[in-house]
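Regression test case RT-17, inverse folding.

Input:
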């Protein structure tokens, strides 16, 4: 009997035949054999290993588990039935979920770097922001909102506004949501932006009439949209009589809400308020917030703000020099 002929009796395979049947290399099978994952059933007189038919099924399972990413000690426990395969699969799913989230974070950061041409310092900052835990994100958001709405948390007009400005990154965010979160987190740490938004909040709180339970922040923005955006879409000239009527309606609304007379002083004040709201980072914040929270992205308010301020100044109501349309 030559060195590759199995002993008589039940079917047994030399290592070369086992490699052919399983698609694994002889070297890999020898490694698994030396590791005790698959054991030979005997040896030929020349010392060649032979394996039983169950080795084929066992090695097929080992190959599948390894391709799924399980480490060798865990594979051995599964094939030896020391641990149940469903339990191992469930644990591995959790591990893969963590890896997927990590890869999404990395992809989002690298995508942002590629788009923005970031420096190494900016890359480091974005990476750290993307990796923040849920508690760390909550603290960062809380610090920003506490600064912006300092002294206004108990204000009946601002409770809903604060909630509406709070980003909530989901447990399984998309790449777009991660990118938006990183940019939002950068805005949170922009001291000038904090000051700008805080000024808007404080101005709007001052303008609120004592008996105005609804408050002004949403009302002014919504009134501006309902009055100015249709005119803007229709191409109405800010210096036209039609624009003047729209300005009158907005000023009357502002006067009622602020409980002040509609006069030159009020219109100058309204213009100042609209100028203060016209920070492009405000629109960007709301756009990013909608992405993170999975909301419908709002239309930018800046075009309506610009049009209205020009219309106010064209009438001489808003202070400064009239702006030509």
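Golden output:
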């Amino acid at each position: 009997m030559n060195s590759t002929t199995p002993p008589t009796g039940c079917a047994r395979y030399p290592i070369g035949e086992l490699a052919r049947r399983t698609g694994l290399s002889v070297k890999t099978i020898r490694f698994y054999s030396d590791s005790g994952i698959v054991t030979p059933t005997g040896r030929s007189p020349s010392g060649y290993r032979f394996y039983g038919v169950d080795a084929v099924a066992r090695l097929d399972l080992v190959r599948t588990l390894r391709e799924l990413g399980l480490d060798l000690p865990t594979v051995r426990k599964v094939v030896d039935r020391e641990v149940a395969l469903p339990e191992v699969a469930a644990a591995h799913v959790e591990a893969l979920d963590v890896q997927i989230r990590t890869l999404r974070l990395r992809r989002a950061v690298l995508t942002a770097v590629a788009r923005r041409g970031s420096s190494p310092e900016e890359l480091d900052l974005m990476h750290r922001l993307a990796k923040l835990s849920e508690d760390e994100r909550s603290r960062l958001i809380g610090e920003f909102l506490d600064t912006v709405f300092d002294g206004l948390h108990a204000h009946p007009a601002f409770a809903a506004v604060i909630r509406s400005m709070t980003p909530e990154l989901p447990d399984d965010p998309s790449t777009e949501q991660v990118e938006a979160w990183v940019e939002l987190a950068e805005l949170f740490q922009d001291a000038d932006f904090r000051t700008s938004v805080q000024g808007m909040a404080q101005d709007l709180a001052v303008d609120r009439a004592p008996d105005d339970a609804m408050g002004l922040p949403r009302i002014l923005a919504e009134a501006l949209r309902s009055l100015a955006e249709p005119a803007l879409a229709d191409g109405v000239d800010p210096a036209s009589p039609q624009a003047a009527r729209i300005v009158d309606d907005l000023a009357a609304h502002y006067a009622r809400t602020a409980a002040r007379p509609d006069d030159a002083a009020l219109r100058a004040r309204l213009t100042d308020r609209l100028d203060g709201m016209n920070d492009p980072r405000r629109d960007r914040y709301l756009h990013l917030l909608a992405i993170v929270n999975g909301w419908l992205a709002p239309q930018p308010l800046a075009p309506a703000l610009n049009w209205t301020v020009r219309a106010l100044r064209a009438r001489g109501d808003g202070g400064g020099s009239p702006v030509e349309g």
